[in-house]
Amino acid sequence: MPDIRLNDVAMIYPFQKVTGLFDRKQKQLILEQQKAMPYTSNEGVIALQHFSAEIKNGEFVVVLGPSGSGKSTLLRIISGLERPVVGDIYFDNKDYKFVPAQDRDTAMVFQNYALYPNQTVYRNIAFPLEVKHVPREEIEPQVRKMARMLELEDKLNRFPHELSGGEKQRVAIARSLIKDPSVLLLDEPFANLDPLMRGKLRKQLKELHQAFNTTFIYVTHDQYDALSLADRIIILKDGIMQMDDTTANVYNYPANRFCAEFVGSPAMNFFEAVKVSRNNTISILGREYHLTTGQQKKIRKNTGIDVGIRGVDITIKDEGYPAVVSYTEIIESDIIIHVTVDEGKELTVVEKLNNADEMKYLAGQEVHLVADMDRLHLFDSDGDRI
């Protein structure tokens, strides 16, 4: 199984030519919309730029980012469905830039399932082996093994239209894994599924990764998928890598403000343009934090810094900084308390729910906040971590 290395990869899609019955004004509007994308060149829209990364054999890597960030483009470049405009891609130090998709020993699972509607579940799963002319007596035990692993044994004679969304996606995963690829690529596979089914399939996918020891590269905009599945997370924004690190480091030490805001639910609380005192301290919710020597060196003179703190790192106590409860939410085992401080500034506090019948915090109630000053996240005016 190969290690995959991408070196300074970029992808540019030419501007779409608008022809037909559109009048001149509408054609101009469409072109202007394309050129208004975050990054463009004279050649077109830049979907991915200066991307370099190495994916080790057997890793479960999640590529996380908002829509239009270049996630699917990256996946298509690895699969061979797209060829980068510049840069190189290597499988075990062999140049694969010009190797076609069918020769890369990869398999892909799509968001829309891509099953053959006129074939049974059995035939859909068996298809990759039939294409390879594997003898029929060898195909059946492999199909039944995959069906058993993905809880599809009683669905083998059904057609795709008779399946739920979760069952269809399990068939798509089984069909991809049955040929034992070196790399499994998953493009937003759970996007169309309800939360309960997503949770079940996350568990199954993690178990499959451990069973097959295959490299999994999973693309999503869903942070829950990323945090629960990944050994490592790569975060993209506007085609540019923002961070490439372990799941724990992405959550605990975000490289910039975008990563801090994008990962974590509820979103991180922020205090903008906080002034640094002459003795190199800042004040948050009535408590002081003294900047380390390293942090002091990174701060520009006469500029404020943005300070973030997650809701789980703020505690409600009998004494502390005054706040007023706006409303509360119960999400699984967490209670999220939305409060206001200082002339309407909104913050969230997260506590574990011990008793679902006991609503501790009511709208309009005054509470007191204590921030864990060892859990602050500091960012400079450019959004980079200090």
Tally of contiguous helical segments: 10
Give the tally of β-strands: 20
Order of helices and strands: EHEEHEEEHHHEHEHEEHHEEEHEEEEEEE
The class by helix and strand makeup works out as alpha+beta
User: Given the C-alpha coordinates, what overall shape results?
Assistant: globular
Rounded to the nearest angstrom, the radius of gyration is 25 Å
Largest sheet: 6 strands, mixed
Strand order across the largest sheet: 6-7-8-3-9-10
Mean pLDDT: 90
Model regions low in confidence, pLDDT < 50 over at least 5 residues: none
In whole angstroms, how far apart are the ends?
39 Å
Which percent band covers the strand fraction? 25-35%
Task: Characterise this structure.
With 386 residues, this protein is an alpha+beta fold. It folds into 2 domains: 4-105 and 181-258, P-loop containing nucleotide triphosphate hydrolases (Rossmann fold); 265-379, Beta Barrel (OB fold (Dihydrolipoamide Acetyltransferase, E2P)). 26% of the residues lie in helices and 32% in strands. A 6-stranded mixed β-sheet has the order 6-7-8-3-9-10, with helices on both faces. A 5-stranded antiparallel β-sheet has the order 15-19-16-17-18, with no helix packed on it. Strand 17 and strand 18 (345-352) form a beta hairpin. Helix 3 crosses helix 4 (136-149) and helix 3 packs parallel to helix 5. The chain is globular, with a radius of gyration of 25 Å. The mean pLDDT is 90.
